[in-house]
Amino acid sequence: MRDELLEEHQKLAELARREEIRPPQSSKAVLPWMKANLFSTWYNSLLTLVALGFLLLVFKGFLTWAFTGAKWSVIPANLQLFAVGSYPREQIWRVWGVVYILSVLLGLSAGMWGGLVLRFALVLGGVWFIGVLLPFEFSTRGGFLGAVVAIAAALFLGRGRTSFRPWILGGWLLSFPLIIVVLRGFGENGVLTSNWGGLLLTLILAIVGIVASFPLGVFLALCRQSSLPAIRWVSTAYIETVRGVPLITILFMGNVLIPIFMPDVDINQVLRMMLGITLFSAAYMAENVRGGLQGILRGQQEAAQAVGLNYVQTMLFIVLPQALRAVIPAIVGQFIALFKDTSLVSIIGLIDLLGVAKSVIANPDWLGLQAEVYLFAAVIYFIFSYSMSYVSQKIETALGVGNT
Amino acid sequence: MAEHENAPNAPIIMCEDVHKWFDDFHVLKGVTTSFQKGEKAVICGPSGSGKSTFIRTLNRLEAHQRGKIIVDGIELSDDLRNIDLIRREVGMVFQQFNLFPHLTNLQNITLGPIRVRKLAKSEAEAVALALLERVNIADQAHKFPAEISGGQQQRVAIARALAMEPKIMLFDEPTSALDPEMITEVLDVMRELARSGMTMLVVTHEMGFAREVADRILFFDEGAIVEDAAPADFFDNPQHERTKLFISQTLQH
Lengths: 404, 253
Ligand SMILES: Nc1ncnc2c1ncn2[C@@H]1O[C@H](COP(=O)(O)OP(=O)(O)OP(=O)(O)O)[C@@H](O)[C@H]1O
Ligand SMILES: [Mg+2]
What we know:
The complex is a heterodimer of chains A (about 400) and B (about 250). Chain A is an all-alpha fold. Chain A has two domains: about 70-85 and about 195-404, MetI-like (MetI-like fold, Orthogonal Bundle); about 90-190, no CATH class. Chain A has helices at about 1-20, 30-35, 40-70, 75, 80-85, 95-115, 115-135, 140-160, 165-185, 200-225, 230-245, 245-260, 270-295, 300-305, 310-325, 330-340, 355-360, 370-400. The radius of gyration of chain A is 28 Å and the shape is globular. Chain B has helices spanning about 1-5, 50-55, 80-90, 105-115, 120-135, 150-160, 180-195, 205-215, 230-235, 240-250; strands spanning about 15-20, 25-35, 40-45, 65-70, 75, 90-95, 170, 200-205, 215-220, 225-230. The relative contact order of chain B is 0.16. Chain B has ten helices and ten strands. The interface of A and B includes residues 299, 303 and 305 of A. Adenosine-5'-triphosphate (ATP) binds next to strand 2 and helix 2 of chain B.
């Protein structure tokens, strides 16, 4: 009797085990999902409805304003201002030059790497294509159409040519000075940096800041871990000093002090701001990287030394790849902060994206349209910040292999 | 170069009155010994007696502060060129494996040959695959260290050291971090290596391995060598009180 019961029990358990082997299915369809998660019981349904009503109440005012009250015409009317500030109209071809350089490079990279890069190329192509459809002047729309074609052609050309990757990386590196030269031109015929503005200026400040502060930060972090006390102290002192001062003070000081200390050297305002932002961001970057370095076990360096790698090789191939991977979120967070912090340059008179927003509002033609203009600026900042965050998440997943 | 070629019977490692302090703590208190080419020496002794510190001074992961160490005719000093030369000739295997977790097993092995010996990538990979074959895990080449067992990781670590074609191999408790069923597979690889004529210094508590493979057993206590004998003498006729105690303790379990 007992034996039979036991047998029965084991059979059941066996059955249960077999059934449990399949993981629970999570449905992706909208309706089943809603039924399962929002309306599964009567009180869940009630809660869902209450929450919906609450959301509606909060956003009702905003939605009515956005669709009926707001004068969105201020945005298209000032689009060029938002994009490039007071960059002279007859020189605008320089900006187009930059658009084409980037489109071709991105298209080629997308063809060679695929994946995330390809997705970005498609998004950028989409943005250019929207430019074609919008009611701009004929030449502008033509320019955008050309850019779409450039991306597509480059993509086609680069498809699968993986052996050219090092060349394209070199091309990206070269593109930084090239872009600056194209935008600036030479002497009197060029465009003074004081005329750079809008999103263009914001992006230039951010990209130069990011590209320069990253290696500098890594260098400072390594110095802070040096076995030579003098190097360690200098690096620590620098990092702590900069972190103890608000960025805005550094920008002000850069603006006022550099001309006093070096009256003979003519460093223009944009360059001073680039310097300030870079030096400021590098200190934070160094601390982020140091956090990663501390997580690397001593045995890693010893093993690298034991196979004969020297200090530079050990850092380059063993320590930094692991340390940086561990702190990607913090580093990208720092990039995003830097991107948004570039808006501080409007305080010393540069007209970046935020500066343009302010000047548009001050224009008597567009009086009282703060909400529309600031909201637009906020959306632009958000799009770029979120893209960085998105890329960071993708990179983290891609590097997830063998991470333990 | 010529210096060490013309003395065929000179020891490949020579230590003379080696002292080492960690701050005020005297870890090595005058170690004098030498090892011949092709010799297999097992080093044992109680925990904290300085065994690890001693073999780590031999490839200068630790710097000694007094005395003299000459490895393959090169005296170890702060001279970076000498250190580089030594590290190419001395391979090391650690208790915790210390594989590079962000590289595949194959890349772990090819890194040194490519960056230090300047081999072409394809050549380095051929060498690495042959070594993986030799330690019986050719099928794990493209996995990451975290994806294989401890015993397999330690064998990759041995292959990584061998890829530099060292003249001397140092092992610091290579099986202490392993589950019992994996110890044999690592010891088998080390036995094979011993048969091939490699000069080996092994810190270990595996007395069976010592008895079978070692030409000499050195017993460390409080930073000095207190017993240095062939396995038969070491186990059956130990001279020092500490050694007797140690042997009775280790052979008990
Ligand atoms: N980096 C260090 N700084 C300070 N003290 C150290 C350091 N490394 C080792 N020591 C000390 O030196 C002594 C000898 O250490 P060592 O690791 O050489 O011993 P061991 O014989 O290998 O012991 P075990 O069998 O536990 O591995 C120990 O007391 C240890 O605490
Ligand atoms: Mg030890």
